Amino acid sequence: MLIIPCPHCGPRDEIEFACGGEAHIARPLIENKISDADFADYLFIRDNPKGIFLERWRHSAGCRKWFNLARDTVTHEIIEVYPTDSLPKKAAARTSYSSSWRRHTVAEKAAKIGKHSQTEGTK
Amino acid sequence: MAGVLKISESHQVARIDSTSRIDRSKPIAFTFDSRTYSGFEGDTLASALLANDVHLVGRSFKYHRPRGILAAGSEEPNALIRLGKGAYAEPNLRATQIEIFEGLYAESQNRTPSLKFDIGAINSVLGRFFPAGFYYKTFMWPAAMWMRYEHVIRHVAGLGKAADDHNDPDRYEKTYKHCDILVAGGGAAGLMAALQAACGGARVILADEQNEFGGWLLGEADIIIDGNPATSWIADVVRQLKALQNVTLLPRTTVFGYMDHNFLTLNERVTDHLEKRPAHLPRQRMWKVRAQQVIIAQGAHERPLVFSGNDLPGIMLAGAVRTYVNRYGVCPGKRAIVMSNNDDAYRTALDLCRAGTTVLIADLRAKPQGPLVGAARDAGIEILEGHAIIAAYGTRRVARVEIAPVDNSATAITGEILHRDCDLIAMSGGLSPAVHLHSQARGKLQWDDAKLCFSPSATHEPSFNIGACNGSFDLATGLKEAVRAGTKAALATRHNVISLTVPDVTIAKQNWHPLAAWKIPNGHLAGRGPKAFVDFQNDVTASDVMLAAREGYQSVEHLKRYTTTGMGTDQGKTSNINALAILADALSNEIPNVGTTTFRMPYTPSNIGAIAGRDIGALFDPVRLTRMDNWHRSHGATFEHVGQWMRAWYYPQESETMYEAVNREVKAARTTAGILDASTLGKIDIRGRDASKFLNRLYTNAWNKLSIGKCRYGLMLKDDGMIMDDGVTTRIGENHFHMTTTTGGAAGVLDWMEEWLQTEWPDLEVYLTSVTEQWSVATLSGPNAAKILQDAGIDIDLSPVKFPFMSMKNGHIGGLPARIFRISFTGELSYEINIAARHGLALWTHLMKVGSAYGITPYGTEAMHVLRAEKGFIIIGQETDGSVTPHDLGMDWIISKSKPDFIGKRALARESMGNDNRKQLVGLLCSDSKTVIPEGAHAVFDAEQPLPMDILGQVTSSYFSPNLNRSIAMALLKGGHGLMGKTVYFPMLDGTVLNAKVVEPVFYDPKGVRIDG
Questions:
Q1: Phi, psi of B154 (to 5 degrees)
Q2: CB-based contacts of B166: which residues, under 8 Å, 6+ apart?
Q3: Would you call the peptide bond into B804 cis, given omega within 30 degrees of 0 as the criterion?
Q4: Which residues of A touch B755 (CB under 8 A)?
Q5: What pLDDT, in 10s, does the model give residues B304-328?
Q6: pLDDT of the residue at A43
Q7: Do B720 and A43 lie within an 8 Å CB cutoff?
Q8: So where are chain A's domains?
Q9: Interface membership of A43 toward B (CB under 8 Å)
């Protein structure tokens, strides 16, 4: 059972937390019309890497705040805790972020204002 | 008790004079298999039985062979005992770990009718027909027969019998603890490490599974530490530890689990050893410990040798024999043969010899030498070098053996067979470090080809392995490691260290490199001759392992599951390495290449009661009660669980059945007035600049234009377009809303809203507060609802024009401030009266009193369900299951076309959502109007079709409607919206078939004319 360093309450037992799965899944803006298949990347497809995984946690039996965590799925080492609206700072965690297949999905691009999708032929 | 009086010490024929750890001034009478025996305080059940010359203590799992006591500790595979009577009975306890007390009651297991005569032993004669994988091979075919086979197998298989009364009367506790350093194991190394770690002030927990600290040293007679016998050194260290405030000593406590981030679970047997158990103490206590550093000092297990007949009672591990002689003052035999591949067993031979036993040593090694060998020769013990016991014989105890010279690797017999009589064999196949905790914590192992064992290499968690569990069998080395680990652990937890001197050890020097001899030949072809057991508890023989290898089971994990070796309550503590080595040999592979099976918690079986602790019965889960709960109880309500809430289900009067009571309540709500305790509905107070913007994104319909004081029904979807929850939300002010959710969904909905606010739309300024328990809610429903409110003294104009449907007003009832919503879940004129929680009961009793003139009737959740079903209103979790969209329920009207986005909008546009064959909500009218189709019944078009039938869908709600005087039902059917007027069939479990007509799911007042009363 992990000890998780809540950014607001300090280190606490895992039983106080709820895991929210993969972090950094941007929600496509509906005006950037994308295909069902691309939308499925956002809705259904989740990563399950061996090694560093960036995931969302909530201190559900504490301050109830969401935060992000970089955790090694092999060793369970917690590498970094950082706010939901930012990227990790440690190099290994940053690599995990930038090397994810998700960075290249249409769904992620479609989460930004002004970016358009394949279906609108801007690519 | 006459039986006790007859007991005298003289029955303990195997008792010897020695400086043992038992208290001979405190005799104890106990019962084993209806016979009374005597022992002494300090005895285990095993040592006391051996003292009474009882070796036969159980029958084996598969062949029902007679089995005795093999070991002296927690690794015991054979001597499994059922302890206690009635509800207190507990099976599969190891006799070697049970401390005896006056009146202890124990039974042997797995025998019918008695231990000495067991009809199951016929399996042993038929043993050739029960090879490895017997069940897999025999009971595979025909598949349909498995149910019948299983019944018989379950009866025959298994170990002990659980208590007949499954309500465990004992009390258990759990406790949580943080410490700097946890030391697992209180033998020589553990004690030394704990002292070193603690002397600088670190908070240390030292846990050991035995009743006293000292581990294996307690069973040694010839070891001197710092000039005194080892036991004096132990006493001195324990005294020093006890004097330290920062040390918690936990004897009788097994560290049984080691999880991530140094989280360990301990089981403390608090009163199991006591005759009279104080009421204030739990029977067992589970410790959940978070340690910064862990020092593992688990010790080692001795391995048996694998020769024919090695499972007979009277054949024991050499180290265990030594423990019985020295610690318990019991000599388990008069004519002993010590069989060994190493030096250590010589110490057993010497101690037996001193105890007056005639000893013969059969040493597998061709030229054993060293001080211990010399000492044995000097003591006049006969040593047969390069010899092995190739077979042991006896009926209920070993009586004679065949000994033969063997070659260097003990694979072939090289000479004449000798015949010897004996009543004890002390065998030693070398030591296996107990790497269980280290491995549970995902530490790595490496094979030591000289010591013939796996020992820890890299640790995964912040921990140290010291002493025998680290492969350091030599005491002096173990103590050095202990001081080093204690120092390092203290420094790692930022504590001072006062360096202690490593104690000076005087012990005969011994060679720790045993001879590799895994399977002793018996002069027969492979697989023939008397059985040679690898795993005693699971009756796995060497030939089973070799057969499995021939049949292609090359992975040790497969071998384990196919032969069952290493399973059971001992998890192969004595057998795993032997099985592995024999498998490796059969595969012509190296042991490290074959690998080990996974070590999992618990180290030894742990009582489920201790794991549950006090979280049982009423304390298993909190129960939530409304403020009106006492009224419901005193008026005879029955209750149902809704989430954690207890809700009044129905209120039977006198001899009413549930059916009669519900019908009466349902009718009252439509003819005069019913009153429902709706306090349990989830309520969330929503405030902030962007509250309406947020609701617009959360719900499928539009919320911007809802005016203050108006209510609106909303559906919440997940982003996959599936319905998640529903409820009515009311605008209290420009930036203030009051949301209601389902009773069971309240916490989940709040979490859901928080998640979106925090992680997706942090730019929105919205504040959420759960106010479920701040409001008591009474729902008054029926044509007379307004009249009752008038009579109750309300200061609000209730005319439908002034207070229309789907609006909210603040006012007073009987002087109490209230917030009243004109919303309806029954289709009748209805008021949901919200009042400060503390006034809930006052409001309820006031309305009941005033309403009595109108025949006001309290109704429960069952009547509420019937009333809403008559109107075709859905219930989340009943008409929905996480795979249902608004369109499936015919609720397209609630999906805003104009809103740019809401949660689930994009998913609803997915191609598959338009499929006409999705399950859709319909109403059903059973052809027999008095028959209520069971909820969950599956619908088909053709009940005569062959199996498996083509299922259309299932009934989601089904009731008898007293207002319509007929049964009604709702169902989710494939393409249901297109099936109106068609007939569908429901094959029942009893072979009958019901049929029903598909209709619109609104059965009562479809035009909604009753809403204004």
A1: -65, -30
A2: none
A3: no
A4: 20, 58, 66
A5: 999 999 999 999 999 999 999 999 9
A6: 96
A7: yes
A8: 3-120
A9: yes
Q: Nearest CB to A2: which of B260, B759, B910?
A: B260
Min CA distance, B840 vs chain A (Å)?
A: 29
pTM: 0.90
Q: Of the candidates A13, A56, A75, which has its C-beta nearest B460's C-beta?
A: A75
Question: pLDDT tens digit string along B622-640?
Answer: 999 999 999 999 999 999 9
Q: Are residues B371 and B445 in the same domain?
A: no
- Residue B362 counted as domain residue: yes
Residue A59 contacts B, CB cutoff 8 Å? no
**What is the rounded distance in angstroms from the CA atom of residue B696 to the CA atom of residue B690?**
10
The runs of H, that is alpha helices, within B807-839 are: none
Query: Chain A partners of B910 at a C-beta cutoff of 8 Å?
Result: 36, 39
B contacts of A28 (beta carbons < 8 Å) = 906
Using 50, 70 and 90 to split pLDDT, how confident is the model at B529? confident
pLDDT in tens, B247-304: 999 999 999 999 999 999 999 999 999 999 999 999 999 999 999 999 999 999 999 9
State the pLDDT confidence band at B801, using cuts at 50, 70 and 90.
Answer: very high
Considering the domain architecture, whether residues B320 and B422 belong to the same structural domain is answered as yes
Residues of chain A with C-beta less than 8 angstroms from the C-beta of B749? none
**Helix/strand number for chain A, H first, E second:** 3, 6
**Cα–Cα distance measured from residue B274 to residue B814, given in angstroms and rounded to the nearest whole number:** 63
A12 touching chain B per CB within 8 A: no
ipTM beyond cut 0.85: yes
Q: How many CA atoms lie within 13 A of B492 on its CB side?
A: 18
**pLDDT interval class at B980 (50, 70, 90):** very high
- Give the A:B interface size as CB pairs under 8 Å: 48
Average pLDDT over residues B502-514: 95
CATH architecture of A3-120: 2-Layer Sandwich (3.30)
pLDDT tens-digit readout, A64-78:
999 999 999 999 999
Q: Pick B758's closest partner by Cβ from A1, A18, A84.
A: A84
Residue B629 maps to a domain: no
Q: How far apart are CA B360 and CA B407, in angstroms?
A: 20
